[in-house]
Amino acid sequence: GAQNAELLSSQDQMNLRFVLIRHIRMFAGFVTEATDFIGPKRSQRIHYLHSILEDDLAGTVDGEGPDPQRLLCGFRRLLDSLMAIRLERLENYGEKAGDKKLVFNVDRELNALEEILTISGFNIGGSTNV
User: pLDDT tens, 11-33?
Assistant: First the structure.
């Protein structure tokens, strides 16, 4: 987080900012679409997290350009919240069936989650490899 900000060069900060802005903008449509399925209370929470992210993008928090590490934390917070809602819905309703791709979709999802954990794992704090 903020304590590691000095470890990023200005070029790394610019590259990280570019990647995050692209991901956030491309994901915004999904956020809007997803809130139609999750009920009003959870939808309000997701809209709130998304609006904080949009404020950070606009620089309204500190009056400057978006801080890439703040954007990263905010976007991860939004993704984590959506993932928690998804996992809860899977527990309650099960996997979507009928598209003949159930096993393939589950396999892809699990591989992606495993990759996130095995690439970075819990080795945090010592380095900010961007």
Answer: 888 888 889 999 999 999 999 88
**Among residues 94, 80, 76, 81, which one has the least CA distance to residue 41?**
81
Mapped onto helix, strand or coil, the DSSP state of residue 71 is: helix
* Rounded Cα gap, residues 116 and 121, in angstroms: 7
Identity at 99, one-letter amino acid code: D
How far apart are the C-alpha atoms of 58 and 85, rounded to whole Å? 27
Q: pLDDT digits over 66-107, tens only? A: 888 889 999 999 999 999 998 888 888 777 766 677 787 788
- C-alpha to C-alpha distances, 127 to 3, 18, 74, 123, nearest whole angstrom: 11, 20, 20, 9
Q: Phi/psi zone of residue 64: left (φ > 0), alpha (ψ -120 to 50 degrees), beta?
A: beta
